[in-house]
Design goal:
The complex is a heterodimer. Chain A is of the alpha+beta class. Chain A is 38% helix and 12% strand. Chain A has three domains: 204 residues, Aldehyde Ferredoxin Oxidoreductase,  A, domain 1, CATH 3.60.9.10; 174 residues, Aldehyde Ferredoxin Oxidoreductase Protein, subunit A, domain 2 (Orthogonal Bundle); 158 residues, Aldehyde Ferredoxin Oxidoreductase Protein, subunit A, domain 3 (Orthogonal Bundle), CATH 1.10.599. In chain A, helix 1 packs across helix 2 and helix 19 crosses helix 21. Chain B has one domain: SCP2 sterol-binding domain (Nonspecific Lipid-transfer Protein, Chain A, 2-Layer Sandwich), CATH 3.30.1050. The longest helix of chain B has 12 residues. Chain B is globular and about 40 Å long. Classes of the chains: A alpha+beta, B alpha/beta.
Amino acid sequence: MNGYVGKLLVVDLTTGKSHDEPLNETYAAQYIGGAGLAARYLYDAIDARTDPLGVDNLLIFMTGPLDATAAPSAGRFVVVARSPQTGLYGEANAGNFFGPDLKLAGYDGIIVRGKAPTPVYLLIRDGKVELRDAAHLRGKTTYETGDTIRAELDDQKLTVAAIGPAGENLVKYALILATNARPGAKKGIAGRCGMGAVMGSKNLKAIAVRAGRTQIALHDPEAFKAAVRPAVDMLPDDLSTQVWRAVGTSGGMDMFGMQGNVPTKYWTQGAFEYDKISGNLLAETILTGHATCHACMVACGRKVARAAGHDLPHAEGPEYETLAAFGSLMLNDDLEMITYIGSQCDALGMDSISAGSTIAFATYLRAEGWAPASAFDGFDFHWSDPQQALQLVQLIARREGVGDALAEGSRNLGARYGVEGMAVQFNGMEPAMHDPRAQSGMALVYSTSPIGGSHNQSDYYMVDLTGRAIDDLGIGATDRFEVAGKAANVARHQNWRAVSASLVQCIFPNPPVKNVVEMIAAATGYDITLDNVLSYGERMWDLKRALNIKLGYAARASEKMPELLLRALADGGTEGHVAELEPMLREYYVARDWDWATGKPRREKLLALGMPEIARDLWG
Amino acid sequence: MAKVKFGSDAWVQALHNELNTSKAYEDAAKNWEGDFYFVVDPEGPIKEPMYLYMDLWHGKSREAFVAKDKDAKKPAFVMSGHYSKWKKVVSAQLDPIQALMTGQLKLKGNMVMVMKNVKAAQEIVRACTRIDTEFEM
């Protein structure tokens, strides 16, 4: 199989046994790799009765055909499982070097099933697979876990994907974090959907992998080089590359703030001194270096050695989402404290978007009197209190006191006080820090995303707010407030990002799509062209929808806007706009050929996409 | 008032004057520090590149002229693109951020300064649209 190793590692933690399994060539040809391929495996394995934190859930790590190649910024990996946070299909996408190292160690992916009787970690090295005791790692942070494993095995070439205390304690939005000892390596965070909790539920503390000498055959090496070259030539001068490198993802803070994109005071305020929590200020003050993932020309990772009087583990600094979630969302403008809190989220092992959002929601509930003073174990919530936010992060990781309720996420917290509708969440997941009132496209992205309120399923805010069109795929720039006529554009963008997540390619750089498509074709030999590449993405998108239907997803009850996002803001860059979801949703269903009543992709569409078995499952 | 030819000395002076009388630009660019080359790359009837120099500093334009050759100044920022792209930007048919994000215009310089002052760029374009501009193509 060109572009692939052609082999998966299947680990049964209940029995402690593992075996190699040939990669399903039919699935790969249809779903390429990464998230698409992993979702196809997951589809076969779980149903509505599967407990996300039970032994029957699978935890799948998957690479793609561009991993471990020279393709720029395509060295990522994905983790999928049924999500304990949403109850739906869960997917998290991460960088660092774990994906390429796993592939070079001889596997396209790992399927983990069952539950170990005691904590273990998985070691893949020199062609051997071993489950090792992890009792001594219990309670260690993500960073400490990786460092300890590397030290005790005297092997600094191990890349380690680990959970922290939050994963062990089944925090619903626990993450998996990958580290290695390469100089300038960027952390890889599989942050969303609670994949760290699934890992914790299986008593799997970490996976350590050492890259071997596995050769990845390419279908047409010369054509591959010819496709890579133009991308590598243009990327250094591309504005996205320059901006992300200079100021990181949070360099957009000032502009996004001006546009009303940065949620503030739990989505109820439109203005804030965003420059005080910006990557631009960070670059001028506490930034100590840059960090990259595999084969990346951007280096968006921020290295910050110290912040707020603390040394940061691995000197890993914050991204935009963290600075907004623990900054403007809770009216904190202390950049150094927010940076430190973000590093603690990573170390303790929880998604900073969901953690910050849930803390901000609790603060809002108390401030507005929705929750009584006796709520939250008497914990007194305040806006603009970073010390309190830090304390709460630590309590969440341990599920201690009020942290236990916050560990369940916003939707469950709201339900506890009878105000579930006040929680800003989509299908159980707190949205990313991009306000749909500043750009209507994200209202559609969040509400139709297969994993809940994720910006990784489509970064359409870049189209609406910065005009980052993709002309080769018919994705034009759109007016940010416009509703009519936008849905088909959003669907195409989602389809393209589904392809990105199958490669597995980062969405920050901006290589020519034509060259990326040529890279896929040259690597795999598949008949993928600019004309048909979106149909691959559409197949993946419909598969994930079908899986959610199988898991019990009720579209009509679920695809709606949170109440707070229906309220216009009096100040700031949203200019009083509110995104009207239903007109866009109606157009979207037409564009996707989905059935409005049931939310299912229509039988004819599934057949046209070459998915007869899925059509049979959905329609009989 | 007669139209002013895009890329001429008169046009650059007109923009210089517009910026120095714009309160909106003064506010948006109050922290801006850095001179610029706006480079118009040859295209169609435009056979030679144009180098429009502007020294922008704390909300004011201190100096503006058309440089005869690119070595006349060593500006902190260089923004370049083909004539047709500049025409679209100057006539507000193409957002400058979109032009940069999609590679229709290129920018070199300190990105921290750029990202802190995006609004200033928008005000410059607004000032451009107030000039009654004549284009060659």
